[in-house]
């Protein structure tokens, strides 16, 4: 609904009104944006030091925090994120900016290594122009997850944001402009899929970051690979949450699983999607989840009492109904939800619990991008690990147990890029995140993420030591 051959157009998923309409860039305009980014890099940004970059990035964080609703409301209007969550996302984006402003220099400090040289070391140098291809589901956080480390390492940034969130993209660049960031260091690119390939192949684009579906990641990764350009891919997930019978606080485990599954109306790559429960506590845990899901309030995302807003687009609602219907037909037990909400204003999907899910069912094999909890019964932890890994995805996962040491051992057997023990899977500027298998390539955030778009240069100084 938001895509057209000539414009990016966002539709409010609650009232179906047009929020923002922006003309797409032509091929010539897109190439000029890349040219402008290269000139900003060569003529200005490469000559700044960490202190100067940090001062500007901290100013962006302050601008957003001081004008919270100005930056939060576009998310609520364009993709239905409840206003309280949207405010939280702006603050988290600001945190990413502040974190890298504080720690980038430490993360990228020169490393001296003993060799046969008089002196030898590794230094981390910027690449130049980078491109971030961004999704609609967390428009600010995922933008700053790319922008903050790339900028602090000395690169310039071009954002190709999703066609369904053009106002969010405009506001992000506006924040940089307002605080005096040098012209064209951060730019928006409004192009469709056909022109994106041309931009990726542009000689000045030195690295590409994409957050999106596995299909999109495969396409962008293939293009970047054919040009021998570094690429970071953060893709879909079907995260397992393993609940073992020795879990000491099942109430807390249920609270966290429910939060993980409903936040952003379930439209999160790292949400707990497959809840794998040991047999002795299986029915009890289902009851705990149902009790909590029934209390969640669907409604107007601008209403501060709303916990679940609309799904971003109507076709996504239809896809989820198809996933649930096929799984029920295959034998899954519908514990809660599943019904159509045609009498409600907006693109809503009911909070849904499916029990007795088997690994071959649609809701277990595919990513469910909405408030659907799929519960799988297992006999023991060995079966739990086997089922957790029986997926093409490997983004995140969690283990709940009363034995933390056992949890650590199990974590090493879960084939994902991130595991939480007795806690929620989340992204944190201080820690690296990124998936394996069809969930991605490379890392973002933490000290590892900032090194994705740098030239790790080894320097050998002679003469040879005697």
Protein architecture, described:
It is a single chain. The chain has about 475 residues and is an alpha/beta fold. The protein has 2 domains: about 5-235 and about 440-460, Aldehyde Dehydrogenase, Chain A, domain 1; about 240-430, Aldehyde Dehydrogenase, Chain A, domain 2 (3-Layer(aba) Sandwich). Helices cover about 40% and strands about 20% of the residues. It has helices spanning about 25-45, 50-65, 70-80, 85-105, 140-150, 165-180, 195-200, 215-225, 250-260, 280-295, 315-330, 360-365, 380-390, 405-410, 445-450, and strands at about 5-10, 20-25, 110, 115-125, 130-135, 155-160, 185-190, 205-210, 230-235, 240-245, 270-280, 335, 350-355, 370-380, 395, 395-400, 420, 435, 440, 455-465. It has a 7-stranded mixed sheet with strand order 12-13-14-11-10-16-17, sandwiched between helices. Strand 5, helix 5 and strand 6 form a beta-alpha-beta unit. Helix 3 crosses helix 4. The chain is globular and about 70 Å long. InterPro entries: Ald_DH/histidinol_DH (IPR016161), Ald_DH_C (IPR016163), Ald_DH_CS_CYS (IPR016160), Ald_DH_N (IPR016162), Aldehyde_DH_dom (IPR015590), ALDH_GabD1-like (IPR044148), GABD/Sad-like (IPR047110). One of its GO terms (molecular function) is succinate-semialdehyde dehydrogenase (NAD+) activity. This is NAD-dependent succinate-semialdehyde dehydrogenase. Belongs to the aldehyde dehydrogenase family. It holds the Pfam family Aldedh.
